[in-house]
Amino acid sequence: MNAIGNPWTFTASHLEMFFGDQLLASGSGFFWKDGERTFLVSNWHNFSGINPTTGQPLSSSGGRPTKIQFSAFKKMSEEDEKGFFELNSATITIRICADDLSLPVWLEHPKFGKAVDVAVLDVTKPVRGLHIMHANTVEADAVLEPSASQEVFIIGFPLGRLTRVPTPIWKRGSIATEPTYDPNDLPSIYVDTASRTGMSGSMVIARHTVVGKSVTRKDGSESNTYLYAIQDVFLGVYSGRLGADEFKAQLGIVWKRQVLEEIISAGVPPNI
Questions:
Q1: Phi/psi of residue 17, each to 5°?
Q2: Is the separation of the CB atoms in 133 and 155 below 8 Å?
Q3: Sequence-ordered alpha helix ranges (H) in 127-241
Q4: Domain total for the chain?
Q5: What is the pLDDT of residues 232-268, one digit of tens each?
């Protein structure tokens, strides 16, 4: 029996972008909770099909997405006495704009627009009845600041969804720049990692090791003192390599958590 033991697995989603019935590209995404709403989070370039720097279509066909398919898990049985239950993988199709590419239903950053390569899509109704979890509820209930050289994990689907592996891949890296610094005056962080096609839109978590101290919780209270604890905290949204060469610096771009929170609270439809 195959069992899934890590709750982060249920926060990740594999994406495929389509123009009509034509598959254009694949990527990664994840789920985020805001009140009673569930959002699918990915990159601006995944939902638009456009390179945000050049303004050109990413697909060699010139097509841009009118709909996306994303993956989730569906509970197929009741829990047994040990808490186990049967799961199946589900694929949900949702239209993201009209056939003529007008009326997009996804949101971009209210200030930076496409300069911040993050976008969100409200999927509250399509995921109803599915077994999903949200990155901001699965993460540790701790307020912990990231630091340069800290270990991170990029959780997504490099090179697409691997055959017979319906769960995301964890790729290890480390924070390569001081998190308080914004490269190019945009709210991002560079990470040192070897990344590949398909990882765009992945969530990035920072791993904190807490030894002999307490932590501040999200509600402002203090925890008990931990002798030793691993605390995984959401860091941001991965959006690809810095530069075109995969074999040189191997620096990845991660958009900071604040970007996602700003889009959720005040995002606007893209003007493309």
A1: -105, 135
A2: no
A3: 135-138
A4: 1
A5: 999 999 998 876 555 556 889 999 999 999 999 999 9
Tokens linked to 28:
């990664």
Per the domain annotation, does 154 fall within a domain? yes
Q: Among 53, 45, 40, 112, which residue's Cα sits nearest to residue 258? A: 112
Which one, of 110, 15, 5, 157, lies nearest residue 72 by Cα? 15
For residues 256 and 253, what is the distance between their CA atoms, to the nearest angstrom?
10
Global pTM?
A: 0.93
Three-state secondary structure call for residue 132: coil
CA distance 17 to 46: 7
Q: For residue 226, is it within any domain?
A: yes
Q: Which domain holds residue 85?
A: 7-266
H-helix segments, the chain? 44-48, 135-138, 257-266
C-alpha to C-alpha distance for 257 and 152, rounded to whole angstroms: 14
Tokens for 244?
Answer: 């075109």
Q: How far apart are CA 121 and CA 160, in angstroms?
A: 21
Task: Let me know if residue 198 belongs to a domain.
Answer: yes
Residue with tokens 């995301």: 168
Place of tokens 């389509």: 18
Domain with 72 in it: what CATH number?
Answer: 2.40.10.10
Residue 272 lies in a domain: no
Read off the pLDDT of residues 186-204 as tens digits, 9 standing for 90 and up. 999 999 987 666 789 999 9
Q: Cite the DSSP H helix spans in 114-271.
A: 135-138, 257-266
d(CA 5, CA 65): 34
- State which amino acid sits at residue 190: Y
